[in-house]
Amino acid sequence: MVAPRKRLRGISLALGFAALILLPACAGNDNGAGVNEDRREKAVRTEKTTQRLSEADRMDVREMVGQMFVVSVGGTEPDYYIEKMVRERNIGGVILFGHNMRSEEQVKALTLSLQRLSMRTEPAVPLFVAVDQEGGDIASTPWVTPQPSAAEVGSGGDPARARAVSEEIGAELLRAGVNTNFAPVVDTGFGAAIGNRSYGEDPDLVSGMGAAAVEGYESAGIASSAKHFPNHGPATADSHKDLPVVDHDMNTIESFDLPPFRAAVEAGVPMVMAGHLLYPAVDARRPASLSPRWISMLREELGFGGWSSRTTSRWPGRRVGNARAGRGGGRQGRGRSARGLKPAAAAGRRLRRRGGRRGVGEIPERRLRESVRRLLLVKETYGFASRARIR
């Protein structure tokens, strides 16, 4: 299967140069019906992708802002709040935790119900349905076969095993309608919040394992996430409780922290999750999750063209010394697809505050629309609607 970055790039080229791609079909080629059928399929895919992306052009600001939120669900069935978020706020997706999932059949019914509601509401856009299923201790889906931790997989030194593990996880998630997994962890090191979630302490090892895991999820049809950019591994504090400060110089950042993320990008990862980490050498004022400088490095230096995310910025360690971790949330969204992972009721309040007419805070409407197009492209590339059997 073609890696998602190549698929995304191919779709972009198809959108810009559809005539050039289709013109050879008019030339004399007696290769038979198979070639013509392949060209027809490509033309249909291009048309469907064009139609899907055009939905961003029809959305107003409120609808576009909604697409940038993934919210949690209250229970094991759709409730008033989550249905309202889908129906009235056009949210981009939902994230499921252990209390939402009793069995494969129950989760399948939950996800199908939410997808149907989303596709019957204008604009009709399928949802990201996400979980955190890394393997090891980070496993909340009761029907998915238990898998070893990343540290155990990495200790064997075989990327093929990392691919096999993620492919099996992905296939079992997809059966229940889950289409997105916030994995793999490509942090280098076994720091406070990471432990055995990391493949190891060697960036070359982590690069190979992480890239293989991305390929495994892609093979299974799951949109994956490389996290926690730029690297939570060396942090001595847990970012759920504090704001870790990593005093790496630029040489160390380039040689130790970034290689696994670069490898994941090259493998085609569609998503990168930024960590609540302060790297003073790059940005002494804001953590990576809120830093335009880090997002610029991710886009320009690593060549990442997918969508980036962060969890809600309301975490305990919002301010350390001179670091302004609680501000800049609007600026960090420039040129990226920022998403908050929030409970439905809290997301509703935040969406009401952000639904302006011309943009969101300091994010102009044009950039917001570009971000939404990235999200829609991932949803179309991974066939979210068709996989849910609702198109």
From TrEMBL:
<keyword id="KW-0378">Hydrolase</keyword>
<dbReference type="GO" id="GO:0009254">
    <property type="term" value="P:peptidoglycan turnover"/>
</dbReference>
<dbReference type="GO" id="GO:0005975">
    <property type="term" value="P:carbohydrate metabolic process"/>
</dbReference>
<comment type="similarity">
    <text>Belongs to the glycosyl hydrolase 3 family.</text>
</comment>
<dbReference type="InterPro" id="IPR036962">
    <property type="entry name" value="Glyco_hydro_3_N_sf"/>
</dbReference>
<feature type="region of interest" description="Disordered">
    <location>
        <begin position="313"/>
        <end position="358"/>
    </location>
</feature>
<keyword id="KW-0732">Signal</keyword>
<feature type="signal peptide">
    <location>
        <begin position="1"/>
        <end position="27"/>
    </location>
</feature>
<feature type="region of interest" description="Disordered">
    <location>
        <begin position="140"/>
        <end position="159"/>
    </location>
</feature>
<dbReference type="InterPro" id="IPR001764">
    <property type="entry name" value="Glyco_hydro_3_N"/>
</dbReference>
<dbReference type="GO" id="GO:0004553">
    <property type="term" value="F:hydrolase activity, hydrolyzing O-glycosyl compounds"/>
</dbReference>
<dbReference type="Pfam" id="PF00933">
    <property type="entry name" value="Glyco_hydro_3"/>
</dbReference>
<dbReference type="InterPro" id="IPR017853">
    <property type="entry name" value="GH"/>
</dbReference>
<dbReference type="InterPro" id="IPR050226">
    <property type="entry name" value="NagZ_Beta-hexosaminidase"/>
</dbReference>
<feature type="domain" description="Glycoside hydrolase family 3 N-terminal">
    <location>
        <begin position="61"/>
        <end position="306"/>
    </location>
</feature>
<keyword id="KW-0326">Glycosidase</keyword>
<protein>
    <recommendedName>
        <fullName>Glycoside hydrolase family 3 N-terminal domain-containing protein</fullName>
    </recommendedName>
</protein>
